[in-house]
Amino acid sequence: MSTRTVPDRDRIKAAVVDMLSAIGDDPAREGLLETPRRIADMYLEIFDGLWSDPREHLRVGFEVAHDEMVILRNIPFYSMCEHHFLPFHGEAHVGYIPDGRVVGISKLARVVEGYARRPQIQEQLTSQIAEAIMEVLKPDGVGVVIEAEHLCMTMRGVRKPGSRMITSAMRGDFKQSHVTRAEFLSLLQGKH
Q1: Percent of the chain whose predicted confidence (pLDDT) is above 90
Q2: Which of 41, 53, 65, 176 is the most exposed place for a label (fewest CB within 10 A)?
C-alpha cells in the first residue's frame, strides 16, 4: 500500500462546489446538484493508482527457462495530465527479456493501469513502468513505448487534434544494445 493519504470524498465534493462557484456557475442549479458527488466518485476511480503499489502485480510470477523477448503491445490506458487535469490516452507497449522469471501478461497491463491512474505526465509514466519491471522481475532488459493524445493540447491551447506524443524508456539490454532495441521497436511495428 502506498504511503499517500487516504482519499477524502467530502473534501473533493466541497472543492467542486467551490470551483463551480468560482467559474461563475450556480452549484445549486438542477443540472449541477449531483455534479460534486459524481466528480468525487470519478476521481476516486480514475486516481485509484495513488492508493496502491502497481509493483505488487509483478510479485507473482513463474520460473521459466525462457530468455528471449516477451512483448505485450497495444495496452490501452487513460491518465490525467497533472498540469491541466485533462485526460491523455493512448497505448503502451511493454517488452522485457526474462532472466528465468516471467509474469502473466495481464500483470504487465495492470502495472500500466496502476501508474496511469494517477495525475501524471507521459514521460514519468513511461519511466515508472520500466523501473517497476526492472526492480521486481530483474530481467536482462526492459523497453516501454507509449503513444498518447493529450486533451490539454488538442481541446485547448494550441488545439491540434490527432497529435500524438511518443515516449520511450529503455533499461538494461534494451538501452545498451542497439540490436536489442531495434528488434523491440521492429516487433512493435508488426514487421515480424
Answers
A1: 88
A2: 65
